[in-house]
Amino acid sequence: MLYDFTFYNPTRIHFGKNAMQALKGELASFGDTVMLAYGKGAIKKNGIYDEVTKTLQEAGKTVIEFSGIMPNPTYKKVLEGAQLVRDNNVDLILAVGGGSTIDCCKAVSVTAYCEGDAWTKYWVNEEDVDNKIVPVASVLTMVGTGSEMNGGSVVTNEDVMLKNGRVFPPKVYPKFSILNPEYTYTLPEYQMVSGIADILSHLMEQYFSGDDNNVSDYLLEALMRCVIDSTPKALENPKDYEARSNIMWAATVALNTITGVSKMQDWQVHMIEHQLGAYTDCAHGMGLAAISPAYYRFMYKFAPEKFARFAKKVFGVHQNGRTDEQVALEGIDRLEQFFKDSKMATNIHSLGATEEMLPLIANSTIVGGGYHDLTADEVLGILKEAF
Length: 387
Ligand code: NZQ
Ligand code: ZN
Description:
Bound molecules: 5,6-dihydroxy-NADP, zinc ion
CATH superfamily of the largest domain: Dehydroquinate synthase-like - alpha domain
Number of helices: 15
Mean pLDDT: 97
Strand order of the largest sheet: 1-8-5-4-2-3
CATH topology of the largest domain: Dehydroquinate synthase-like, alpha domain
Strand content: 5-15%
Order of helices and strands: EHEHHEHEHHEEEEHHHHHHHHH
Number of domains: 2
Helix content: 40-55%
Structural class: alpha/beta
Shape: globular
Distance between the termini: 39 Å
């Protein structure tokens, strides 16, 4: 059954090969000064920067550039962007890039006019956003996080070695997002598969919770199958538009909150990965792929029926007279094999983790959710397993 819920998502999506044509019309709704935010330069190499700046010029905007946003954006970078916003009275922040750029821009949006320390207020105490915010919009170039249509903003504070995620309310979501699957063709394979691991993890984090057999579970199974079917095609031919467009939209739907309605949701794999990221700066999706098999081999015992359903519905495993536990384990083996076949990370050692880091990561991980709330010792056990 479905519990009562309210669903609202204000982000307008322009999807497809001609999606950029919508930018000029969208810009008309905002003031004159646009902050063009981007990463370390990929958009200058693949031509997206030229396309966007041409449209900004045609629309008569004053453009302030905020560049160099790094993967796993830092709070220092957020403060730099916030200063630029205040100095130039920015009317719109246009994030052109992946989850890191978009997350950083949402963080800049809420931080620019925040009185006091925004990190403590928003990423530690999770207080309501009561100060002026600056609208954010995005042109997506890297697929995975769903940041283009949600309120998520994950920021690393290097001073305290914490990578904290905050889900902001709909007023902070991008006002519009432009999604052209062709823009993702230039992604290095490593980033493409990292993003795919992230999508699958978002779907599993929502799926493995509650046992209510509702429409959300069916949607999640369908999306997982779509991602698993599309991945080898995208690996074989990165310009396979059908595969890339399916992966792109699956990523958005996977975390625009629609598949999570009436689910408790887990997110413990993400919490562990975020702290792994704080210590190693690894690619988010690769961290998730490396942790997931160890985590699920620990967790399936608390919900064998649901894990057996996953094996059967997502990977087509047959019961063949076996117990749910046996079927569940085959499902997790198949998941791990999918990660290997898709060239995703299979251990955290290869992502820069050292044995000394493991207790530090375990002790700083925020846990709670899913079928069983982990203790720090259990997180450590999972990390050793994933090492
Ligand atoms: O910096 P540039 O030069 O732009 O290069 C980027 C970056 O190195 C490159 N790239 C992006 N588009 C490209 C491209 N290279 C060639 N062609 C293109 N079209 O890809 C690299 C990775 O980009 P990044 O934005 O870091 O990746 P991703 O989208 O995976 O974002 C990861 C961040 O999002 C957070 C993660 O924790 C991490 O900090 N997350 C955000 C979430 C949310 N907002 O809801 C949820 C997620 O679970 C996640 O935690
Ligand atoms: Zn994620």
